[in-house]
Amino acid sequence: MLVIQSLVSDVDSQITLDAATLSDLVSQASDIQSALDSQFVWKSAFLSDMNSDLSSQIGGITAGVTASDMSDIASRVWADTIGARVDSRILVVQSNLSDDESQLDLNASLISDVDSQLTVTTASLSDLHSDMSSQFDGISGMISDVDSQMTLDTATLSVLASLVSDIDSQVNLGATSNYLSQIHSDLASGIGNVSVTLTASDISDIASAVAAAGGNVSASDMSDIASRVWAMATRTLTQGAASVEAAVSGSTITVYRGTTWSISLTGLGSIATYDTIYFSVKENVSDSDNDAILRVKDDASGLLRWQKAAVDTATNGVITIDDAGAGDITITVLEAETANAVVHGGYYYDVKGVDDNGQVDLISFGSQAFNVRADITRAIT
Predict the structure, then answer these.
(1) C-alpha neighbours within 13 Å on the C-beta side of residue 185
(2) HSE-CB of 243 using CA atoms within 13 angstroms
(3) Burial of 236 (0-12, 13-18, 19+ CB in 10 A)
(4) Model pTM?
(5) pLDDT bracket for residue 21 (50, 70, 90)
(6) Which pLDDT belongs to residue 127?
(7) Residue 235 DSSP one-character state
(8) Residue 193, SS3?
């Protein structure tokens, strides 16, 4: 922009200078014209007076004049002092006319030079205008490119922000961490309770090895025994398959898709005064009741919401009061509903009690502690 301002200033200075020069030239031409007009007016008056005098003199002569007479008259006239003065005046007039013609030629040359200068100045101004237009067009293009780039960058940032938002919505890091922690805990508990069924032959081999060692079992012996145990083709769990993982562990509830959910919550404290008990599971604590993943009521209303939608069969979900004084309840959801459960970890849940006097209490709460895991066999009939 500083370069453009400098160019504009130079143009303005050049135009001001040309304007002053043109003004001087116009003034000089005007003076020359005035002088020529005055000179021509004087000469015209002088010639007119001379013509009038001659006409008066000649008009009074009535004699016949021959060629010889005209020659004699001419000789007498030019020989006379007056004739000489006339001749001299005519020569002066001729000289003045020649000077005037030269001056006119000079003026014509000056005017031609002025016209040429004006033409050059006009061409220079046109070229300068063209250059400035090109400069402005280039700047306009650069501004347009910058604006386009800014628009593109803004659009790109908007798309990236949308993608990040989508990823954040899909991935609940806290829930995932809780889910992995729960898996680790479950594996640790399961491995800790694993035992091995040994045959009589295995016991005999162990006893022989112990006896051969003189009753001293070395670390190497223990390693060999462990290797033999884990190399057995058949090992059994000492607990039933149904109890591999309890539905409730502490405040964490874990259920499996496509199975009958029987969730027993005990020791909640007396719930005898409550007229209504609600059990709700939500993806976010800010979700409305209509957006609940699971919502059950302890009366004939039964299952109110499933996967954020109304249900066709209310009896597919119920709350059973096992011990009102101790606060033991069981929430049951049939496999007809859970078959389409979304496998997800880290849901929120609570148990809420409401009495007819307007007393509302939060009886139990689980933060990111309700987990739905995948079943292997999908059939439910």
Answers:
(1) 12
(2) 5
(3) exposed
(4) 0.40
(5) low
(6) 75
(7) -
(8) coil
Backbone angles phi, psi at 370, to 5 degrees: -115, 115
Query: Of how many residues is the chain composed?
Result: 381
Checking DSSP bridges between strand 294-297 and strand 328-333, what pairing results, if any? unpaired
Winning range, highest mean pLDDT, from 28-42, 117-131, 297-311: 297-311
For residue 50, count other CB atoms closer than 10 A to its CB: 14
Q: In what order do the strands lie in the sheet with 261-265?
A: 261-265, 328-333, 317-323
Q: Is 243 in contact with 320 (CB distance < 8 Å)?
A: no
**What pLDDT is stored for residue 205 in this prediction?**
73
- Which of 189 and 333 is assigned the larger pLDDT? 333
CA distance 353 to 359: 8
pLDDT at res. 250: 84
Helices (H) and strands (E) in the chain, counts: 7, 11
278-302 core/surface letters (b: 16 or more CB in 10 A; e: else): bbbbbbeeeeeeeebbbbbbbeeeb
pLDDT attached to residue 241: 37
Strands (E) in 223-359, as ranges, are: 248-249, 252-256, 261-265, 276-282, 294-297, 303-306, 309-310, 317-323, 328-333, 344-354
